[in-house]
Every structure is written in C-alpha cells, then in structure tokens.
Design a protein that fits this description.
Layout: H1 2-36, H2 46-74, H3 79-83, H4 97-115, H5 123-129, H6 136-142, E1 155-158, E2 164-167, H7 172-182, E3 187-188, H8 194-203, H9 205-208, E4 212-220, E5 229-236, E6 245-252, E7 264-276, E8 279-291
Parallel strand pairs: 3-4, 6-8
Antiparallel strand pairs: 1-2, 4-5, 4-7, 5-6, 7-8
Amino acid sequence: MTWRRGHHENKFRVCASNDSSCGLDRICFFIVRISRSDALSYYVAPRMELWVKGLAFGLYVLAMHQLYLAVRDVLSNKKTAAITCTCSSHSHDQWKPSVIIMYAALIVPLVLAFLIPDAVLGSQMAAKKGLNLTPSGILLHSNSGEAAPNLIPNHKLQLDSGPSFPFNEYTRPYAKQAADMFNQPLITINDDIYIESLTSMDLYQEQFIGKKVQISGYVYRLDSMNKNQFAVGRFAMRCCVADSVPLAILVETDTPEQWPNDMYVVVLGTIEKRNFDGKSVLSIDAKSIDTQKVPTNPYVYGNPYFGN
C-alpha cells in the first residue's frame, strides 16, 4: 500500500512537470508571436517591451528545465512508474478540484489569448473606462494629500504680449509648455507630447480660448453627448494595457454622422469652453475634419524628457 502511494505520487509529479512545461512554453510562444507581428505594443508600453521579451526568454529556460526534470523521472530507476503514467487505467486522488482550478487558471487565459485577435482598444472600452476630458485632474490629484498646500500657484510665467500662466512646483513644466503652445499660430498636438499638451491646455483653459488647434485621434462617443458632439483622443498607457486611460477633447461639428466611432481623424478648429457632465472642459469648434492613416502605434505615452 505504501509503494502504491509513492508510485502514484511519482506519476503525478511527472505529469505535473510535463504540464507546467507545456504551459510555460505556450506563454513564451504567445509573447514571441505578438512580438513578431508587431502587436506587443497593443499590450505594453515601449519601455516595458524589453522586460517582456526577457520574461519570455526566462520562461523558455524554465520550461526546458521542467521538461528535463520530467524526462529524467521517466528514465529513472522507477521504470514501473514511468510506464504506467498513462493516467487512463485508474484514477488519482491527486486530481483534486484545487488542482483542476490551478490548471484551468493557466490554460483558459492562454486559450483566449490565442483565439481573440489582437486589437486596439476602441470606443467601447473608452465608454466603459470613461473618457478623460480633463487630464489636468490626474496631475492635481496625484500630487494631493500631504502636498496639497503646495498646489496653490505661487509663481507665474508672464508672456511679453499675452496672458500669464500661474504655476507651482508641480505645474512648472506645464506652464512652460502652455506658454510655448500659446505662442504658436496653430497649436499642433504631436504624438510624442500628446499627454502633456492636453494636460497643459486643460490646466490653463481660459488662456487657450479662441486659439487654433489641430489634433488627430480616434472618434469616441458617450451617451451624455449632444448629437453634434463627439470626442477625439487616444488611449494613454503608462506600463500596460490594464492601466490605459482614454484622453480626449470634445469636438463640435455640423456633420457628426460622417464620423463613426473608432475612425481615425484629424480635426482643425478653434478652442472653446463647454460644461460637460458638470465639469468645465475644452471643446474644438471644428472647421475641418479629415480621415488620416492610423499610426503604427495606436497609443500615446508620457514623454520621459518632459520638464527636464
């Protein structure tokens, strides 16, 4: 009876080692597949891609080690255990519900990952997460708490012929960015500083009213919008798709029906201010809207050199 229990434990260990090796191989293969198809950017930020690829290599090494252990057990002196590890002629007490759940937790996500096509986060996810039309709120809230007293502007950047931009220790780089944007005849929101530009404009709403702006992005809509309104923006990603946030600016046009959700467009117009869902937000009175080729990387990221 003692030999039989040890015999079953050895069989279970061999099968488990083999299964874990296969599971790690599948994860590794999935990472390699999305990397080769240039879809890795759909899941993680560029600064995280090297870490993810390194993880794939580590998983491959670990999978090979697990496979080696399984083969070593099969070829060990316990040949009887190796021969009878077909797991079909009898039942094992080791296959408890907890073990089944453990393997299901590993296999189900992998199956879904291979079956669900790689896709960019779109308007449906934006509606679920909620459009962020006031990106400066993230800046102020992230620096609240014990630093709250310092959020009161105690300096200002005064243009020679134009408005001033009050700032504190946290908003100093945004005041400089806002001043630089204000001096441009046409404000162009570029991908490499997309988040910082929208944040600067939102932080100094009054100063930008009446300025001309050009921005590209995906068309998003919320049920609370008027018929002549939609939003144009991009998902901002910090580390991975789980922490992505849809940043956007409101757009008003006489032909909203021509621009369906998830279409990539470029909007040219004049900045105005509106009240939306009880908040003061910037809006673009669109003078022209055109379709544009979808960028290679659909998301935008924080500029690591901003403020330096």
